Amino acid sequence: MTKLDGAESKTAFAARVGLTKGRISQLVAEGLPVRADGQIDVAVGLAWIENNLDPARRNRGGAASPTRAATTLAEAKRLHEIVKVQRAKLAYERERGELVETTAATRTVFARARAERDAHMAWVQRTAPLLAAELGADPRATFAALDRMMREHLEHLADLPLGSLSDGA
Fold first, then answer.
1. In 53, 82, 125, 133, which residue has its Cα 20 to 30 A from 154's Cα atom?
2. Which are the contacts of 14, defined by CB distance < 8 A and separation ≥ 6?
3. Which H or E element spans position 8?
4. Strand, helix or coil at 34?
């Protein structure tokens, strides 16, 4: 960087203060002092920015922004390798059956829940006449009571959060 008593182009000054060249042009329109030759006096420009630009909006986006380190080729390659390893691990886990697709799992769980609900409701239809005969009760009233109780039970189960249902593990 040049000395503070020197002058810089808009591009160089933008890199110094961590802003884009376009933002420097906007600031010039807002009053950032520029010399007749189009250069910006570094000391004067820095003082103007200090006095006129909100501190929270400084250092946003210049090529050499002090708050954002430039990514080197080596760093980019390192990150690329990490992503490749993570993808390979996911493929391996999927191959071993440790991972499943979300849509397939959702579809399977929904189908299982529907089948269990239907089985419970069918149990009511099969059991109500047998229970009524055994107790000597009205078959319609027995069915209506069992059906209502089973529906309430299924609604209660549907309202439980999945985490509250233990799997015995």
1. 133
2. 20, 21, 23, 24, 62, 63
3. strand 7-8
4. coil
Tokens 């376009």 belong to residue: 22
Q: Name the one residue in this structure whose structure tokens are 């609604």.
A: 155
Share of the chain above pLDDT 70, in %: 84
CB neighbour list of residue 94: distance below 8 Å, 6 or more residues apart? 100
Amino acid, res. 121 = M
User: Does residue 3 register a pLDDT over 90?
Assistant: no
Please state the pTM of the whole predicted model.
Answer: 0.43
The helix or strand, by DSSP H or E, that contains position 40, with its residue range, turns out to be strand 40-41
Q: Return the structure tokens found at 14.
A: 């933008």
Q: Are 66 and 50 in contact (CB under 8 A)?
A: no
